[in-house]
Amino acid sequence: MTIYDDFKNRFKLLASKNKHLVINTLSNIFTMRLIGNKTHGDLAEIGMVEFINQFMYDYKSIHVGKDLFRAKEHEEDIVIINEITKIKFPLSLKAYGDGPLQLSTDSHQKMFPFLEKQGKDITNKKKIKKIFKSKEFVDFDGINVMPLIYDEKKQRCNIMIFDHKKAISKTCRIVYVGKNQRFDVASKSVIPGKGRAHPIFMFVDKNSNYICEVRYGGASANALQRGLWTHTKNAISYFDSLTNGWIDYSHNITLVRLFRLALNSSEQGHKVANEILQKDIDRLKAL
To answer: What CA–CA distances, in Å, run from 86 to 54, 56, 58, 145, 206?
Structure first.
């Protein structure tokens, strides 16, 4: 068991015993979508850092910051430290809608070109095993990702962790799906299909069920067109929920007003507000 596995188990236990804490924080995070569609992602990072520091007594978390992790070419957003063992590990936080989910940007564009050299329909078990053990796929399960998933229409959310180990063990086929093509589960073959602008390599299990995909890795590809992706709906059996399933959330309009006031008030006012907010957090802990 890895240090990240220990953390996930601890988080899951907290969510089961103190569900109100998770609902409260996630509701506030997804309320930020009322301010801007991309706002909630950045605020989720600092919000979850504070959640860990306030409610997970045996862990401490630090926000790495955009400039620092970009300079080091890392995908992680926060660092988590086990207060007992003093061991620390990086974590990438992602706030995505219920659908396609990027697990790694593959910034060095290694995965797709490597798979192109292996063939367009890989079914040999030994070959698949070698692919996962290759240096090009070292990041497949090497990045700790915590996705905060939301379903805005139903106003529900979930913290869903992709099970990389299960994906590796269950992959029985890696198939190339080209532009304007799709993989048909019924016929277990690639057929014409509109909409796909760039090719992918799709990973499927013995029943041809979708697991994940590696997207086009050419020089012209942007961050959304390359890297390792999965799909929260299509690969649901390859996820573990830290919130023990979907939880309902509601928008906190008062929080939006708080931000408006905070941006127009002084640091002196912020200090007073911080003291009040900390007292309220302490109240939540006691519930």
So the answer is: 18, 14, 10, 21, 42
DSSP string, 184-244: ETTTTEEEE-TT--S-EEEEE-TT--EEEEEE--STT--GGGSEEEEETTTTGGGEEETTS
Cα–Cα distance between 62 and 45 in angstroms, integer?
10
- CA 201 – CA 158 distance, rounded (Å): 27
Residue 31: name the closest of 132, 157, 122, 139 by CA.
157
The 8-class DSSP code of residue 223 comes to G
CA 250/CA 99 separation, integer angstroms: 20
| Residue 251 backbone class (left: φ over 0; alpha: ψ -120 to 50; beta: rest) | beta
- Burial class of 247 by CB neighbour count within 10 A (0 to 12, 13 to 18, 19+): middle
What pLDDT does 163 receive?
95
pLDDT reported for residue 98: 93
Could you tell me which of 7, 22, 13, 147 has the C-alpha nearest to residue 89? 7
DSSP designation for 40: H
Q: DSSP code of 119?
A: -
CA distance 10 to 130: 33
Residue count of the chain, please give it: 287
Confidence band of 193 (pLDDT split at 50, 70, 90): confident
pLDDT band for position 194 (cuts 50, 70, 90) = confident
Read off φ and ψ for residue 145, nearest 5 degrees: -115, 130
Inter-residue contact 87 to 35 (CB < 8 Å): no
Average pLDDT over residues 170-197: 89
Token look-up 């002196």 returns 268
- pTM greater than the 0.85 cutoff: yes
As given in the structure block, the two tokens for residue 261 are: 């006031």
pLDDT value at 85 more than 90? yes
